[in-house]
Amino acid sequence: MHSVVEEVASRRSGLRLLSDAELRNRVNDLRESVCCRTQTLESIALDAQAIAKDAIQRVLGLELYDVQLLASGALIQKQIAEMQTGEGKTMAAVPAAVYGGVLGGGVHLATPNCYLAERDYTQLRHVYELLGLSVGILDTEPGADHREAYACDITYGPGYEFGFDYLRDQILLKRRNELPLGTCLIDSLLGNPMDVPVQIRGLQFAIVDEADNVLVDDASSPQVLSEFQPGEAPDRDAVHVAQRVATNLSVNHHYRESGTCQLELTQSGIDAIHGRDILIPVDQLVRPWTKYVEAALRARHQFHRDIHYVVDENNVRIVDESTGRIFLDRTWQSGLHQAIEAKEGLPVSPESLPLAQITRQRFYRLFRHLSGMTGTASQCRGELHSIYGLGIVEIPLRLPSQRRHLGLRTFDHQQRKWQAITASIVELHRCRRPVLVGTRTIRESLLLADLLKQANLPFDLLNGRQDADEADVVARAGQAGAITIATNLAGRGTDIKLQPGVGEMGGLHVIVSECHASARVDRQLIGRCARQGDPGSCQTFVSADDWLFTVHGPWLADCIRRMASHGEVEIDLEPKIRRIQQQIESREFSQRFELMRTNERQHRILHGVPS
């Protein structure tokens, strides 16, 4: 790969004296080379990288680092570039996007959220336009027409929006195919050709930013395109009765819990909910009565406010547990969303009608050229290879890391843990060092905020409930004396620059207040400090009653309580925590794999494709 850097530098040397128009003509020459096959794709890729590097310098005044060229080379080779947090993934994608734009057919640059798509589009559009490449961005407003954006050489957008547009196109095409034979021909002869306004012109070339989040974490559930109904649910009385019945049922006798998202009634429970004193509104039921009660039980015992959802303007909004981001346009299925609305005393909305669905796995495997970037790919190496056929290229750090990992601190109770975190923040604030604290849930971010208020410490709170731009809040985290509380991955992709003089104080200190189910999320949070050779430090705090241990490792929770001396464990339990996380990741991979297989079987049956 290092020979690629040298070759790009050599080819770029001949571009420096060209005018902008002449540089643009070089891109047109490459397009012709693709059509006429007068150059190999490898040679075209090298020229595209050299041209992109020169354009970035002209427009933005930035020189791509060698490691960024290594990353772009990995993208061109249909690989995942594992580039550590803060090493410049955004710019590394540009040469690969220019290469894809030259090939034709359109480049889809998928990001985890709307903000990153908008940011990258705004920052880089003039680079592409200098080279004569058109660039667009998906408008995520409901009903927006994306055909103009997809007609561009390069299209930015959140990963999920590409998937939804594909589903919308498939519905339109299916409706056209269901028309009586000859309808299209007759309309055409009558001067009324039936134009099916599909949006995506093809699935040719995709670059996925934060690839582990888009291709792995988000792949735990399919993308479902739904039609929302107005008014109140026709079965609202059944939902409310189920809520009242659920309050009288006891665990292990009437129902069993098997994991965080599994719950089923026992025979005693089934008998109880069909008692003579229970008036079941049979005429309203759209599913078996047992399913209403199970949804009510899950809403009461497995889904919690300010952890799994928030209530905003009389609406239940789902919270992304990895990032803390609030989804305004998503609902749970199978009556769960309605059960939560009833639990919260809100009007029960009608269930959305599913129109089409696709897994992330099947969607992204449709692209002829798929690649991606992330700082944490190694821990899902097997899944990325087995599902998507993607290898991982580990990009070296541009400068040696100065990050200091302080020892894990383990407590027997959450109260002691939060007291220790608060004391650590107080001590660091005296030295004017900036502190970033990552919490697993919104509820915990609010708990810590109350503790800091009691300590008279100023702080910024970012947990998905604020209207402030999350990127601006995170960007300020590198200022002297700044204290920032954020759900673990809030502001992911935003660079935290240290204020002058902060490096001499020791740089940004990151506190992991609770281990996540995925070690990759912990790594992403820790990666917010000590970027680009800056100094920085991090420390992780856990307690026996953390969610990870109570749900997935009760044996370790018991061990912590036994070993805690004066409330804190003295030995390092990090290897045991990693073992629990690996077991969870293995189970979740199996679930995602089975989800993909089920979706593919349904697709084959629907389209009459033999197994």
Plain-language structure description:
Helices cover 45% and strands 16% of the residues. It is α/β, with parallel strands linked by helices and 611 residues long. Strand 10 and strand 11 form a beta hairpin. The longest helix has 33 residues. It is globular.
Overall 3D form: globular
Number of helices in the DSSP assignment: 24
Radius of gyration: 27 Å
Portion of residues in beta strands equals 15-25%
Low-pLDDT residue intervals, each spanning 5 or more residues: none
The SS-based structural class is alpha/beta
Largest sheet: 8 strands, mixed
- N→C terminal distance: 41 Å
Rounded mean pLDDT score: 90
Provide the helix percentage. 40-55%
- Give me the count of strands: 22
Summarize the structure.
Helix content is 45%, strand content 16%. By secondary structure, it is an alpha/beta fold.
How would you summarize the topology of this molecule?
Blueprint: H1 2-13, H2 20-36, H3 41-60, H4 66-76, E1 79-82, H5 89-103, E2 107-111, H6 114-130, E3 135-137, H7 147-150, E4 154-158, H8 159-177, H9 183-189, E5 205-209, H10 211-217, E6 223-227, H11 236-246, E7 255-257, E8 263-265, H12 267-273, H13 289-301, E9 309-312, E10 315-319, E11 326-327, H14 336-343, E12 353-358, H15 360-364, E13 369-374, H16 381-388, E14 391-394, E15 402-405, E16 409-411, H17 414-430, E17 435-439, H18 442-454, E18 460-462, H19 470-475, E19 483-487, H20 502-505, E20 508-512, H21 519-526, E21 535-543, H22 547-552, H23 554-563, E22 568-569, H24 574-606
Parallel strand pairs: 1-13, 1-14, 2-4, 2-5, 3-4, 5-13, 15-21, 16-21, 17-19, 17-20, 18-19, 20-21
Antiparallel strand pairs: 6-12, 7-8, 9-10, 10-11, 16-22
Helix pairs in contact: 1-3, 1-4, 2-3, 3-5, 3-6, 4-5, 11-13, 11-14, 13-14
